[in-house]
């Protein structure tokens, strides 16, 4: 079964979100997780209920500090930093009726907590809405909200509910419905930009068509109400090439791709197959290293891309989330990115 080919009545543009800004800047969502938050999470896991309020207050404090800093440094499309999300899949899974299991190894020195689903995915209260409203209040420009998509939630889950074990399409469909309900709550309070994070989308090809269909069910019909971004990473050229037609058929306005840590090795994919009229979220700084890119180095990378993607369709971002970098490194990388955007705007002041 092929996922539906979904069209638009009107394609939103980057300039609809950040008017008048060429080479606008953003970041993928997660920002460095302070040691204080990690220690509070440990206390909560050990049963210290008094730590929960400390955790909430401290997470809010870091959110506010980073939002004010993003506006000061010139991030055109800020995001809250995900300070109260220990893990991108576990955070959603626990609200959707799952049970958090113990940590397992991931990549590099990271670990994550799988979510066990022993019963049907549950409808959840609007757990994103209040945090979104508070975060937006710290900023004078629209912010970006991020959610973990159904393909990644499904891939990083352990299934104990027999109907899901027998039919993983049903599992993905229920996840899509639960996510769509949270999106509805966010739209009610004025969300204008939504990013769907799908790092697992092309890592296991056997469920690709089911995953694409679930993503479409999550966001289809919303493309005229909100600017939609698909964030993909942890893939190979070959895997992306096999999935590209289906990805481009999804009703996103932007596809965000890591480029810097691969020396732009994925650029031939865009040259060969195009973006189906979508914008490109261009990863221009490597989040897997502490080395700080220079603005000139970032500009040189963008110059390679602008040969095939129009200036007004390129947004500059890090390759992925900055959660695992130390705060000074993350700030320096984002500052270099903003400086590169200024250089590009000075050089190409009017879009092609």
Oligomer: single chain
Return the structural class: alpha/beta
Query: What is the count of DSSP helices, taking H or I runs of 4+ residues?
Result: 13
Q: Looking at the structure, what is the overall shape?
A: globular
How would you sum up this structure, described in words?
This protein is an alpha/beta fold. The protein has helices spanning 14-17, 35-45, 51-73, 88-95, 129-137, 150-155, 162-166, 168-188, 208-219, 237-249, 267-273, 295-305, 327-347, and strands at 99-100, 104-105, 111-112, 115-117, 144-148, 157-159, 193-197, 227-232, 254-257, 279-285, 314-318. The protein is 43% helix and 12% strand. α2 packs antiparallel against α3, α8 (168-188) packs parallel to α9 (208-219) and α12 packs across α13 (327-347). The longest helix has 23 residues, at 51-73. The radius of gyration is 19 Å and the shape is globular. The termini are far apart.
Question: What would the keywords be for this entry?
Answer:
352 residues; alpha/beta; six-stranded parallel beta sheet; three-stranded mixed beta sheet; 13 helices; 43% helix; 12% strand; globular; disordered N terminus
